What we know:
CATH class of the largest domain: Alpha Beta
Keywords: DNA-binding, Glycerol metabolism, Transcription, Transcription regulation
Number of helices: 8
Pfam family, one: HTH_IclR
Number of domains: 2
Protein name: Glycerol operon regulatory protein
InterPro entries: GAF-like_dom_sf (IPR029016), HTH_MetabolicPath_Reg (IPR050707), Tscrpt_reg_IclR_C (IPR014757), Tscrpt_reg_IclR_N (IPR005471), WH-like_DNA-bd_sf (IPR036388), WH_DNA-bd_sf (IPR036390)
Structural class: alpha+beta
Radius of gyration: 23 Å
Helix content: 40-55%
Function: May be an activator protein for the gylABX operon.
Amino acid sequence: MPSNSRQPVAAVQSVDRALQVLEILAKLQTAGVTEIAAEIGVHKSTVSRLIAVLESRGFVEQLSDRGKYQLGFSIVRLAGSTTARMDLVKQSQDICDQVAEKTGETTNIAILDGDRIINIVESVGRGEIALRSWVGQSNPAHATSSGKILLAALPPSEVRARAGRKLEAYTPATVTDFARLGTELEAAREHGWAPTREELETGLNAVAAPIRDHNGSVIAALSISGPAYRLEQSRFDEVAQVAIEAAERISRRIGYIG
């Protein structure tokens, strides 16, 4: 086997061992290099190298008692992010219900997953024609209002990397040009909300606003969607303000104080 094919295997093994170090520290609370090496079954020098990397990233920290280590605050940061996502569902349902009641249109909470969004909360509006349930569905980010406001929070280079080479068309109105998408994302950053105009489905319009976690990072979007004849573009500004206010209320509930 060529030597360059062994390198990825070694890298994966190092990742696995680093995760074992974290699991051992979680179980024992504190441990030294010798103890960790014995648990994993590797030489102490291997553990020392792993700990040096983990410590540089804040996942492990050395105690004042020389030679002992414990989990670092980067673990807390990651756990906090997961907790925020879990709290998001619990803390947003009643607000979505209120928005749906106020606007008469379907209200959703969505998160970004690669180049797509996943809807995790929904409240159906009282409008005469109810839209189908979107909960659990994955939709293309560039063709949805939620996706646009979530992409707007990312650096342009990351947006392009996530989207790949081509933006797929779903209706004649879908944005398939990267330059135009960039312009729309810039407008979304400036205004604090993003629209879609029959870009995912003909006859369906929507607006969305960002939801932020305790760090101020955009982790989700609140969208209000409805039939284009009812949620007309002339209403976008008005409905967007409702979305922004609701998204801010949810953000405050999960710890955002900005």
